[in-house]
Amino acid sequence: MMLILAVLSMVIQRKCFLRINKKEKIVSFPKESDTKPKGELIMIKEIVFDMDGTIADFYNVPNWLELIRAFDPMPYKTAKSMWDMEALADVLRQLQKNGIEISIVTWRSKESNPVFDTLTRLAKLEWLTQYGFPFDHFHCVHYGATKADSIRKHLKDGEAILIDDNKHVRAGWHLGATIDPMTENIIEVLKGLI
Predict the structure, then answer these.
(1) Which of 28, 46, 81, 129 is least surrounded, with the fewest CB atoms within 10 Å of its CB?
(2) Long-range contacts of residues 126-130, Cβ cutoff 8 Å, at least 24 apart
(3) What's the gap between Cα 168 and its chain centre?
(4) What is the average per-residue pLDDT within 11-22?
(5) Confidence at 157, pLDDT banded by 50, 70, 90
(6) Cβ–Cβ < 8 Å for 48, 169
(7) Rounded to the nearest 10 degrees, how much is the dihedral formed by the CA atoms of 109, 77, 182, 90?
(8) SS3 assignment, position 60
């Protein structure tokens, strides 16, 4: 189920919570003044980011498809950021201080071989380092992999928010809420969790 977050914030004992009213499809953050339940209280433990088309402007790199088909990782290295990465990194570091883990779960190229897979992984890590993107976990998985499988092992309780530009990936996410970075300002939404 895809949920769009209209965010009010609260940190309870250094953990963030969402209140989900499944019947009305409402997601909100509980206020200290809430006295009676208005839905299920959910603890956010992790925020999961896709890269290509979500934080990295991969699809606007000239000739990206031809380069990938020729096993050239250059588009992964040279993609511009889609957000103010300094502001995003500041928000993510604050969330980490509040106990929320930050993960990257990104697909490798559909055009694949073992050497190119390694080059792709290294290029994506280089991109994240170049932009100072803080993260706790990095998963560069085969094209089309179920992204939830990458974090299920360390997500013991609570839920994870997925930020991904792919509507099919968001629709299949079952570990918490999702955010469409094409329609939501992810920096402002994440500020609401602080």
Answers:
(1) 129
(2) 126/77, 127/51, 127/56, 127/76, 127/77, 127/79, 128/51, 128/104
(3) 15
(4) 40
(5) confident
(6) no
(7) 130
(8) helix
Torsion 36-39-44-47 (CA) sign: negative
Say if residues 16 and 100 touch (Cβ distance below 8 Å): yes
Which CATH class name applies to 46-191? alpha beta
Lowest mean pLDDT among 4-13, 154-163, 185-194: 4-13
* Plot region of 39 (φ>0 → left; ψ -120 to 50 → alpha; else → beta): left
This prediction's pTM: 0.79
Sign of CA dihedral 180, 66, 117, 130: negative
* Terminal CA-CA length for the chain: 24
Report residue 113's pLDDT band, with 50, 70 and 90 as the boundaries.
very high
Q: Give me the half-sphere count of Cα atoms (radius 13 Å) on the Cβ side of residue 107.
A: 18
Tokens of 85: 């990465």
Return the CA Rg of the chain: 17
What CA dihedral angle connects 148, 155, 178 and 129, to 10 degrees? -90
* Averaged pLDDT for residues 143-157: 86
Nearest to 51 by CA among 61, 40, 66: 61
pLDDT at 39: 55
Where does 24-173 have alpha helices with state H?
64-69, 74-78, 85-97, 114-130, 148-151, 167-172
